[in-house]
Fold:
Amino acid sequence: MTKDTVIGLEVHVALDTKSKLFCRCSTQWGLPDNTAVCPICLGHPGTLPVLNARAVELAVVAALALDCKINAVSSFARKNYFYPDLPKGYQITQQQQPLARHGSVKFQAKDVVREISIRQVHIEEDAARLYHHKERTEIDFNRAGVPLIEIVTEPEFSRPRDARLFLEELRLLLIAAGVSDCRMEAGNMRCDANISFAPDGQRTEIKNLNSTKAVQLALEYQQQNRGTSASQSFTEATTVRWDEKNRRTVIMRSKSESPDYMFVAEPDLPNLCVEKSMVEALQTQIPETPLQLSQRLAGDYQLNDQQARVLAAHRDKAAWFEKAVAAGAPPAEAAKWLLGPVARHLNLRGKNLGNIPISPEQLARLIKLQTDRTISNTEAREILQQMLVTGHSPESLKKEMNLGRRWDEQTLVKIIEEVLAANSKAIADYRAGKARALDFLTGKVLQRTEGRADPAEVTAMLRQHLDK
Amino acid sequence: MMPTLRQLVQQLEQGQTTARQFTEQLLSQVANAQERFNVFINVTEEMAMATADRVDKLRRRGCFLPPLAGVPVAVKDNILIEGTITTCASRMLKDYVSPYTATVMERLSLSPLMGKTNMDEFAMGSSTLTSAYGPSGNPWDEARVPGGSSGGSAAAVAAGCTPFALGSDTGGSVRQPAAFCGVTGLRPTWGRVSRRGLVAFASSLDQVGILAPSAEDCALVLQTIAGHDSGDATSSHQPVSDYLGGINQGVKGLTIGILRDRNVDNQQGIDMAVDKAAAMLEKAGATLVEMDMPYGKEALAAYHVIAPVELYSNLARFDGIRYGYRAAGHSYREILERSRCFGSEVKLRLVSGVNLLQREPDEKFYAKARQARKAVTDCLHNMLREVDLLLSPSAPLVAFSKEEKDDLLAMYFNDYHAIPASLAGLPAISLPCGLVNGLPVGMQLVAPAWSEGLLLQAGHAWQGISQWHTMAPGRSAQ
Structure:
């Protein structure tokens, strides 16, 4: 079924600039309706677009992160059509002569690494937002003129799931490169999907996909419903809308109804010339792709795939992890602690690694105390909790909390004898071959020591006693 | 009798008159001209007096003031000035309050604004007959048109309402009315003056232009308004010349190519007037050379493909939703269709434009027109390598009657001589050079890009040996 499916994606990403593409209005999310507007982005007569240089920079960074060739010269055109969200009656876009072409993105699809070609990356302005009510439609022009890049893939996907995985990788990549915060729910990243089935090749464009999951679901829906008269006909190219609530697609228009955009070169903007020196300078800012990072972490540090992927998805954690290892922590331990107790603490308190009082070096030292058996695992966890709150060093906390007492052998033996005396059934079980009984007894001993004795040591001593 | 700009500036600086006094004088002239010639769409008396008073106050305090401070101006009603209505002579913008001020007017902020002048609707036309606020009359004969589309601005200068005026020139809209009204009209190089705040008609052809009695007056104004504007990405960084500094260099040593075009029959008397002027320039030291203009027809055709195409997208923003006239309607489409209440000439060009864009997937006409434009541009550049300036009539005819029911092509023909320079983006000036049947004739000089100084120098020299620019309607040469 997947052999004849052909899928391509068009992704629109809002660039993380302070102001709009052609005017100084703020791009800040959540401002009151129609307050971040001016004559230019409202399309008043006599206004002229002035190109935002930072938007160009970020677009170049994005194109480089997608491994594209940057065109030294690109240009803008007017895409003409009438719609209430389009103040000038045309959109200024580089669709015809884009900033960059011919890139690629690798992503993990289960156990395989797949590569998708990027056809082009170009800059364009966003339209306003429409709010449809029963009696009227309202227009908020805050979004009109926000800088976007459009990323067009070659139609090389054959599985809906791959489309989703690609988008997830793309998100992380663009976030890491500082291009955008790619929040699909805020509309900062939008995706239209195109699907067709060989050999008839008629294309369906799917719009209104508000999450990467929706992309997969909608494409799967099209796959499952192809050719059924109940849903839509595939006799001609169609545009459909994804209905999130009812989990189906609805026809918007057919090819015969699709508009003629009558592209004209934009006379108010000169050609965009990107200097080689600028490209070279920005190239140095391109970080590893999430996939590259994940592979490197797994390879260099012998982490399992799951750990590597989670770290790669959060650059700050990956950097923190690497610092901890550099400070002497064994990778496996560092990953365990960072992704376990530390991550839980961050989630609970809504913090991030930037605003907690401990450093990677401190965690490394804590881990050392534990692996040296100076303190037990449980004790280490307790110290960590205090570290996260107070920021004090593990050494001083150990002293403060009076931890790391080595239970002297005599006291331990006494406790062991008491426990053994009180648990004859467990002894019998152990003698009968049930290994679990030993764990049970260890637990009982640890209880008596308030968890402060070393479990391994206790187990060894118990065995000694029992095997006598 | 209107002093020259230079004289007026001097009078103001030396205290021989005040901005208030002079502006008040003019306002009575304005009232007169308004009644007879319908020069203005809106007269801005209060604004003018307020600016005049502010300038006088600053001057009394001894503040440094720019040269044109206190010098009144009339502005074509497609240039936005905050505090004024900007109608573009259309019903669409009848009550449109300008939300900002055009860059050119920011640079003239201390010039009292007499009013917004009449024009052809959205700047397309050669007569002001398409204005939604009635046509203007030519001060030389009020039954005749002042030309267009900057007809009101030309008439304002000719009628003595203002020492200078701003217009816009896309396919001759400053030069042709200047010729019809016997005033001097300058179209700068495309990119010399900021277009920010000029309502766009055909963006790659539009340029703000100056109308005034003399070339020297134009030089003074150009000095103030020319120069790069960060708000206009197509405005040039080319340094602004010292236009006044070079203006007295005369025509000695200049080579002028007089353009002969077999494809056009100018109205009787026009060629003679231009030839006479050429002979006088030769006497004054210029070398005149005969040149063939091969692409006049192609230029006209190309213009009437390119302009409507660009117009179509420039007028797409008028949907009544955010500003301008809005009709009632139940859907966007309904509001859109009902609100776009353009006049017939505008509608015609819109239909033409969308047709040209839509008709063929391989863009036959538009692509061909762009090629023709390049050919015309190359031709002019080549000619200007051989000579310093090109000379021709500004228009093929003199002011025609308001009643003349011309067919479309005849009307478009008005711009025949003006269009090539527009297509090539080159600077050009129209200078009064004669009378035919008592109506003004203008001659046009075209210079290489950024050589406005050369135009003004030659124009000033011409006006030093001729009197046509000093004539006013109803008054003989002095």
Residues 331-349 of chain A form the longest helix (19 residues).
